[in-house]
Amino acid sequence: MAYNLLKGKRGIITGALDENSIAWKVAEKAHEEGATFVLTNAPIAMRMGEIKVLAEKTGSEIIPADATNVDDLTNLFVKSQEVLGGKIDFVLHSIGMSVNIRKKIPYAESNYEYFMKGIDVSAMSLHKMLSVARKLDAINEWGSVVALTYMAAQRTYPFYTDMADIKAMLESIARSFGYHYGVEKKVRINTVSQSPTKTTAGSGIKGFGDFFDFANEIAPLGNADAASCADYCVSLFSDLTRMVTMQNLFHDGGYSSTGISMEIMNKLGLENAE
Question: What is the DSSP string of 108-150?
Answer without folding.
Answer: GG--HHHHHHHHIIIIIHHHHHHHHHHHHT-EEEEEEEEEEE-
